[in-house]
What we know:
By secondary structure, this protein is of the alpha+beta class. The protein is about 15% helix and about 40% strand. It has helices at about 45-60, 125-130, 160-165, and strands at about 5-15, 20-25, 35, 70-75, 80-90, 105-110, 135-145, 145-155. InterPro entries: 8ODP (IPR003563), NUDIX_hydrolase-like_dom_sf (IPR015797), NUDIX_hydrolase_dom (IPR000086).
Amino acid sequence: MTILKKVYTLVFLRKDNKILLGLKKRGFGVNKWNGFGGKVEPNETILEAAARELKEESCVDVKTSELQNIAHLEFTFEGDPTMMDVRVFSANVFQGEPKETEEMIPKWFELNAIPYNDMWPDDNIWFPLMLSGKLFYGIFNFKGFNTILNYNIQELESMEAFYKIHK
Ligand SMILES: Nc1ncnc2c1[nH]c(=O)n2[C@H]1C[C@H](O)[C@@H](COP(=O)(O)OP(=O)(O)OP(=O)(O)O)O1
């Protein structure tokens, strides 16, 4: 089976001891809390897509130079030839207050009160790495949208070094 790769972004804003999540109101991942992101369009860079999706989904502006790439995640679904290639970013400098949009209801969560029961099932595996400041590469193979068949996570020394060898 030929695997088709689609590139997505996923942005987490941090403030004090809190993280901004959004409750997805429609479409893929509906009713789950997640970071803000979506597909990278052909006319933009991954960083531009990350800033655009954050703005569209939460009304918050971020400069691309403030986005720190902290992880690379790959999701596959049994029987589906598409692999989701998700570039994860974190930022603690941004402009504006999060507001509800057509896609998301934003809310700040204390780091010890992340709503894992209402999130993608992989999140409670890699959030602890993210919250402790690690860089990482994760692969998750799903059956449907709620069952992880298998996964692997690797901590990374640097994202630049990772992308030099991971095409
Ligand atoms: N399993 C898992 N854990 C954490 N985050 C994610 C997943 N799967 C995912 O897809 N994601 C993230 C990656 C993206 O940030 C979003 C999905 O993007 P989506 O909303 O489908 O993309 P858009 O381009 O905004 O979609 P439309 O506007 O076309 O509906 O979730």
